[in-house]
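Bumping with the actual sequence this time:
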Amino acid sequence: MKRNFVALFILTLILGCKSSVKTTSYDAKSGATKIVNTIHYPQEKHLKNIQQLTFGGDNAEAYWSFDNKKLVFQASNTWDLNCDQIFTMKITDDLSNGAKPQLVSTGLGRTTCSYFYPDNKTIIYSSTHLSDVNCPPAPKKEDYGNKYIWPVYEGYDIFLADTKGNQLKQLTFEKGYDAEPTVSPKGDKIVFTSTRTGDLELFTMNLDGSNVQQVTHQLGYDGGAFFSPDGSKLIFRSSRPKTEDEIKEYKDLLAEGLVQPTNMELYICNVDGSELTKITNLGSANWAPFFHPSGKKVIFSSNHKSKRSFNLFMINIDGTGLEQITFDTVFDAFPMFSPDGKKIVFSSNRNNNGTHDTNLFIADWVD
C-alpha cells in the first residue's frame, strides 16, 4: 500500500505512464537534453558512502532485520513480476548483474508492507493472494476526475513466512483491509492498519495475532505506523478530513475501496493511543515516517517544498527543528535506520538514467 505512492506520484507528475520523468540539464552548444545521474547530492551532509542496492524496476519499502544484516522489501516490474512481491537480501548482496534475491511471498496476488520478526528468520507481510491469485486491478484516476487516489484492497490479510519463502501462518481473518504491519523493537507487538471498524484505523496485536487492540478512533486514514526505539510510542501518517465536503469525499471513496492521500500530516501517540499529538502542519503529503535512533526525532518524506518532488526531512517529535535531508529532483522516500543506528536505507528515483525505476540505496548515517 505504501509503495503505491511511488508509481502514483509519478503518474500525477506526468499525467500518464508512457511519458518519462528525467533529471536533465542542457548542453550549452547544441541545446540537447542530457540526463544527469546522481547518487549523492552535495547538500546531503547526513549521508555518507551511499551505495545502490537494486538496479531496475520498482523497489521500495526496504526494512532492516534486527541484526542489521538483511533487508526485506517489495518489488515489481522486474524479475518477470507484474505485481508487487516480497523479497529478502543481505546488504552485501550484489544485484547489479541481474541476480534475483530470495522470494518470500507466494508470487500470487499483490503484496505490500513487510517486516522482520526479532528472530531475523520470520517475515510478516500483507497479501491479497487468498482473495485472488491474480494481480488486482488498479483504479483509473480518470474515473475520479484525475484525482490522486490509492486502492485499499479488501483482499489484504497479514501473513508470516520464513526467509526461504515457506508460508507459516495467517494472522488476520477479518473482512476488509488488513495491512501495513510493522514490529516493535521490544519484540512484543505488531502495529497495522485495518478497516474492520469501518474506517482506516491503527491496531496492535501480539506477534501470534492475539490480543488485538484499537489504537486510533478519529475519522481519516491512519497508516504507515512505526514504533519508537523503546517501543513505547507510534509515529504514523494521517489524512483527517474536517469540512463537510472533505468528510463526504473521504467516505464516498472509502466505500469504493479508495483513499486520496494528497494531504497527510504526521502524528505521534503512545502505543495505547493516548497522548495523540500532531507534529507536522506543513500541508501537502507528509508520510513514510520513521524514528531517529535517539527517539527524539523523526525522518519522513514530504513534497511540501515542491509539489514536483519528494525528499526526506527530519523533525523533532515536538514539531520543531525541521531539516531537509535529501535533495533529489523526483522521489526519495521510505527511510529506515538500521537497529544499531549506523546506517539508513531509502528508496529513490535518483541514478535511474531518466527512467521510472525506483531503487534501494543504503548509506552511513552522520548525525
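The C-alpha cells above came from a reply further down the thread. The mean pLDDT is 91.
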